[in-house]
Amino acid sequence: MSSLPQVGAIARRSIVRTSRQPASVIPPLVFPVALMAVNAGGLRSSTDLPGFPTASFLAFALAVPFIQGALFSTMNAGTDLARDVQTGFINRLSLTALRDWPLLIGQLAGVVVLGMVQVLFYLAVGLTAGVRFESGPLGILVLLAYGVIVALSFGALGAWLAFRTGSGETIQALFPVLFVFLFISSMNAPRNLIGIEWFRIAATLNPVSYMIECVRSLIITGWDPQALALGFGFVIALGIVSLMLASRALRTRMTRT
Amino acid sequence: MDPSDNGIEVDGLVREYKKGPRAVDGIDITVAPGEIYGFLGPNGAGKSTTVHVLTTLLPPTAGTARVGGYDVVKDGPKVRSLIGVALQEAALDPLLTGRDHLRLQATLQGVRKDQRAARAEELLHRVGLADAADRKVSGYSGGMKRRLDLALALIHSPRVLFLDEPTTGLDPQSRTALWEEVSLLRREDRVTVFLTTQYLEEADVLADRVGIIDQGRLVAEGTPADLKAEIGRPSVHAIPHRDEDRPRIAEFLARFGEPLATTRDVAVRLRDGLGLTDIVRAVDQNGVDIVDLELRAPTLDDVFLAKTGRTLEGATEEAETAEHVTGKR
User: Fold this and answer.
1) What part of A 98-127 touches B (C-beta under 8 Å)?
2) CB of B56 less than 8 A from some CB of A
3) How far apart are CA A110 and CA B314, in angstroms?
4) Across-strand partners of B193?
């Protein structure tokens, strides 16, 4: 039996169940944009700092929702799968002809679709607010591709946590930790302009900074090979490691003879 | 066993959990094709563990099991393709509708695309959920969830059906409806059914043969009629007028047979040659103060009592207490 229909069926379920939970759809769209609006209003004068890379703080801040949305993807993917473990739904799936990898890929396909909806929403908000993409239409396409990889990688991270712990509560508890990574990054200021030394060092060591800077470079710089390489490199590495861990944890979880 | 058979063969099956007791301790079972086999026992007796092994979800620690002619360890995928399973907790997604579930299950079970919708519709009608098919499962009652679970187990027309306590928690009406459906499956589709239950009546009404399991061991097996016939003699149950009279009445009744361990009344298994009239006469002559006196034909509970020394209800309560104490620790 081909695995494609299985992947499609699992992806469809993932999308349907998320779309039926307004609490899973609305916050990832609204909160990042609201946070961006607050920051763009309150930190507008940062653009007067010598060396600030753009005159529009909104353009500078637009990168943040893309990464913040990814954190929500991690949460959603992880919580959904953990619930499947807790309720025994995973046993129902284990009793079918479903193999482990179509379950993982199907679930992640659903996460990617929802991730794309988020990316398109943030993009629409930015463009409507007058943000201009220095990298042009091709840059927007690269950003969409990056959105896919980010959703996939963070979704796989969530899946690994779900299969490993089998507890939605544990995944929820990890959310603040992921948020700390977001805040100790170059989210609100370019790293070279961060005045406090320990914060600058932390932001430099924090991979989330490079993800934000990758997206930001497409918006305010144009084509910055180093920023793109670091951003894509980190997310792809995270994706590979997360997929391997998730796949192994799923095999253990779906133990059957 | 011929792989074309629908039967089940279990030989010396053992399943041990890490740091735990033997959940299943060397059981032998043979279920003939097209038979309804009732696996009766209290909570924690090993019923669900046996089902998990037979449905390939758990490997056995020792022994062998073949379902539909295939070994559950060596031929897991083949076994899964021919069985339908409704586990103890109807694991359903509250956000999906009944129809969503059937479509998903049909795809995952490899039902042909052009047959999926029709098969789902047929099963929705069969289990009486056609009107609720497009409602989210979160709004279903317990009985509806159980019926959907049964429909999901049947989506790929399995040859062997495993039902793990399918009626636990259901109201009498839903329970009867499910019994009828299971009987129909056997009668019309010749499906072999392996049904676990802690309800005596369920095993009695539904099963062709019953296996009684206690503490991981099969303590009795046979048709309900044969098992009851083994016990042979009826029992007499008396309810004292005052609770403090219980010891006196127990002593009085002991003259007529062996005392039985019951919680609600005082009972004895009658000795051969004695009848209810003998007791009524003696009650009258001795002025024994009782509110009710009943003669009961042997039940499967009597079989359980005879084989284990406990009533099924008492064993279930014991298991629940043990679970509670363990949980508290």
Assistant:
1) 98
2) yes
3) 49
4) B36, B161
- Give the residue from B69, B89, B88 showing the smallest Cα distance to B79: B69
User: What is the arithmetic mean of pLDDT over A174-194?
Assistant: 89
Closest residue, chain B, to A5 (C-alpha): B107
Q: What is the pTM of this model?
A: 0.80
Query: Which residue, among B74, B103, B104, would best test binding to A if mutated, counting the most A CBs under 10 Å from its CB?
Result: B104
State the average pLDDT over residues B299-307. Answer: 79
- Which chain A residues have a beta carbon less than 8 Å from that of B76? 256-257
Predicted ipTM?
A: 0.82
CA distance, residue B246 to nearest chain A CA (Å): 46
CA B192 to chain centroid: 15
- List, in sequence order, every residue forming a beta bridge with B260; answer none if it has no partner: B267
Q: Quick one: CA dihedral B22, B28, B30, B36, positive or negative? A: negative
Q: Model confidence over B56-88: pLDDT tens digits? A: 999 999 999 999 999 999 999 999 999 999 988
- Cβ distance A97 to B113 less than 8 Å, yes or no, reads no
Question: Is the CB of A88 inside 8 Å of chain B's CB atoms?
Answer: yes
* Three-state SS at A114: helix
In B, minimum Cα distance to A22 occurs at B95
Backbone angles phi, psi at A40, to 5 degrees: -65, -35
